[in-house]
C-alpha cells in the first residue's frame, strides 16, 4: 500500500486522489442509506405502526450518539492522515491505539448505562405506554452494542485517513447484505429462532457490524496494512494522553456542530407541523431525497480534510490551498449534478412515498427550492475540512453554529411570516449561504496570516 502523500506530492492534478476518496465515500453513504431503508421497510411490514413507532422513539438519542461518532471519526481521520502523510507509521499506530481506547471506553459507558437506564431514558423521552416495552428492548439492544459500533466506525475512519476508503466500502456492502437478510429473520423469528420484535432490527445490526468488522480486518491483513505490520501487540498501539487531547480538540467541536444542525431540524419540524399532516408528510419525504443529494457535499468535505491532512503531514502545507481549490471545483460539478438529477426526478421519486397530490406538490416545491443550495453547503464543507486539518477547529465550528442558530432559524420564522410555507424552505439556502460566507472569510484570514508568517520567516 503506497503512502497517499506521494499522490498528493507528485501528481500535477489532485483530481485523481480526490476521486479515489470521494467515490467510495459516496457509495458507502448510499449503501448505509439503503440498509436503513430496508430495515425500516421490514419493520413496517412485519410489525406495523407500533414497531415503526418503537424504533422512531429512540431517534433523538441516536442522533446525539451519531454526532459523537461523527466527531470522533473526523478527529481520527485528520490525525491519522497527518501521520500517514508524514510516513510516520509509529505515529499512525499511536493515533490508532488512542482512538480505539477512546471509542471502546465511550461505547462501554453507554452499554453499562443501558443495562439499567434504558427504560428510564425512554420514559424521559415521553414514549407512549403501549410501545414502551418494545422501545426499551430496542434501545437496550442498540446501546449494549455501542462498544462494537464505536470501534467499527473508528476503524473505518482510520482506514480512510490512511488513504484506504475501499475497505470500509466493502465492509459496509457486506453489512448491508447481511442486514437485509438478518432483519426479517430476527424480527419475526424465522427458522425456529425467537421472534425479537423491534429489538430484532437492532440485533440484526449487531450481526451486520460483526461481519463488517471481519471484512475490514481481513482486508487490512491481506494488504499488510501498517497498522498491523508489527502486530497489534506493538507498544505504539496504546492510549496516548497528548494524542487523546488533540483528538478531543477536533472531535468535540465537530460533534457540537452536528448537534446544532440536528437541533435546527427539530425546530424547523415544529414549524412545519403547524401546517398540518399533509405538509409534515411532504417534509419527511423531501428530506429523504435531499439526504441523497447531500451525500457528495458531505463526502467532498471529508475528502478535503483527509487530503489536507496528508499534505500537512508531509510538510507541504503550501499545497492545502490547491486541495481547497480542487475540492471546490469538484463539489461544483458533482453536487450540482446530484442536485439537478434530484430536481428532475423529484416528482417520480417522491411518488414512492406520497400518493396525495397536495403533499406531492409541497414536497417537490421544497426539494427544488433547497437542492441547489446544497452546493453552497458542499463548498462550506471543503473549507471547514481543510481548516480542521490545519488545526483551526473552534472558530469554524462557532461560525457554522452561528449560521445555523442566528441566520437559518430566524430566517425560517421571518420568511414564513412573509411568504408562507415556501419561506420555510428558503431558510435552508439562507443558512447554507451564511455558513459559506463565514467559512470563506475564516479561511481567507487564516491563509493570509499564514502566508505573511512564511514570508517573514523566509526573510
From TrEMBL:
Topology class, membrane: Multi-pass membrane protein
Signal peptide residues on this chain, from the entry's feature table: none
One function term, GO molecular function aspect: xenobiotic transmembrane transporter activity
Keywords: Cell membrane, Membrane, Transmembrane, Transmembrane helix, Transport
Localization terms from the record: Cell inner membrane
Xref: Pfam families: MatE
InterPro entries in alphabetical order: MATE_fam (IPR002528), MdtK-like (IPR048279), Membrane_Transporter-Flippase (IPR052031)
Keyword Membrane attributed: yes
TM annotation in the entry: 52-83, 95-118, 138-158, 170-190, 196-217, 254-272, 292-314, 326-350, 362-380, 392-413, 425-445
GO cellular component, one term: plasma membrane
PANTHER family hit by this protein: MULTIDRUG RESISTANCE PROTEIN YPNP-RELATED (PTHR43549:SF3)
Name listed for the protein in its UniProt record: MATE family efflux transporter
